[in-house]
Amino acid sequence: MRLRRDPSPQPSPTRGEGEEKALSPCGRGLGEGSRRAFLLLASLLVLTAASPAGHRVPLAATPISRMDLKWWRARHEAVLERIRRGKVDLIWLGDSITQDWERKGPQDWADFQPIWNRFYGDRNAVNMGFKGDTTASLLWRIRNGEVDGIAPKAAVILIGANNLGHLHWSAEDTVSGIEAIVAELRRRLPQTRLLLISVLPSDRSAWTSETTVAINRMLAARFDHADDVSFVDVTSVFMKDGRLDRSLFFDPLLKPPDPPLHPTAQGQEKLAAAIEPTLARLMGDRNHAAPR
């Protein structure tokens, strides 16, 4: 998912060389060499990723590294360093929507930190959101150390939006990727309770909107009554009068504007409040959305 500069005359934080391109949906802005390598890898995996029984394993459920990106590698290493320090009771796994919890303004719509601190500041929480990640790259991170040596009480999973970007992975493939993530977490974190959030609605294209609805319908059918996963569909949080509430997304505020995809801090607060009763139950602590 792409994050461009803020719609403000104040300077944006400095990014490493090539990072701005790396933030575009599913690697769309990568250099030509990286793009060719990615497409070659994709082609090879399509041809070879099958079980002996002939069952096709989609790319969405195949671990794919992004370690060739300097900023991504550095963030992965930072996560590994954080979990080595211990005291991890909650993890958030996802893409840029999750990473946005680290934004600090200066605009009101970009000031996520007070909301993070309100809901998660006393929960030993670790943000494992990486801009641009698909289900495939999140699966790679889980298999390559990001949940090793920890036993959090709960894990929040919000992933899938980038599957519907440049790659146009299908609803079926995206659900397969999410199922693979859940299965891997169940195997590696058997005592951790999982909270799976629906793919957020956006306004990128008719196909994307239709596919998002299909994904969430399939996730509900798969996980609504699961014993080991709590599924929360937050679609209604971002809708108003049957349509997407564009005021809850900051992409239209960017210069140049983008289609609504990333919630504002206020939208993210609504999301946090919507999942909080379930999360508090899984964590075994108080409801942080309730008045104290």
Describe this structure in words.
By secondary structure, the chain is of the alpha/beta class. The chain has a single domain, classed as SGNH hydrolase (Rossmann fold), CATH 3.40.50.1110. The chain has nine helices and seven strands. The protein has helices at residues 19-22, 32-48, 70-84, 96-99, 113-120, 135-143, 171-188, 206-223, 265-283, and strands at residues 90-94, 125-129, 154-158, 193-197, 229-232, 239-240, 243-244. The strands form two sheets. It has a five-stranded parallel sheet, with helices on both faces. A two-stranded antiparallel ribbon has the order 6-7. The longest helix has 19 residues, at 265-283. It is globular and about 45 Å long.
What's the layout of helices and strands?
Layout (H helix, E strand, L loop, with lengths): L18 H4 L9 H17 L21 H15 L5 E5 L1 H4 L13 H8 L4 E5 L5 H9 L10 E5 L12 H18 L4 E5 L8 H18 L5 E4 L6 E2 L2 E2 L20 H19 L9
Parallel strand pairs: 1-2, 1-3, 3-4, 4-5
Antiparallel strand pairs: 6-7
Helix pairs in contact: 6-7, 7-8
Give the strand order of the largest sheet, numbering strands 1, 2, ... along the chain.
2-1-3-4-5
Mean pLDDT: 86
In the CATH classification, which architecture applies? 3-Layer(aba) Sandwich
The first-to-last residue Cα distance is: 36 Å
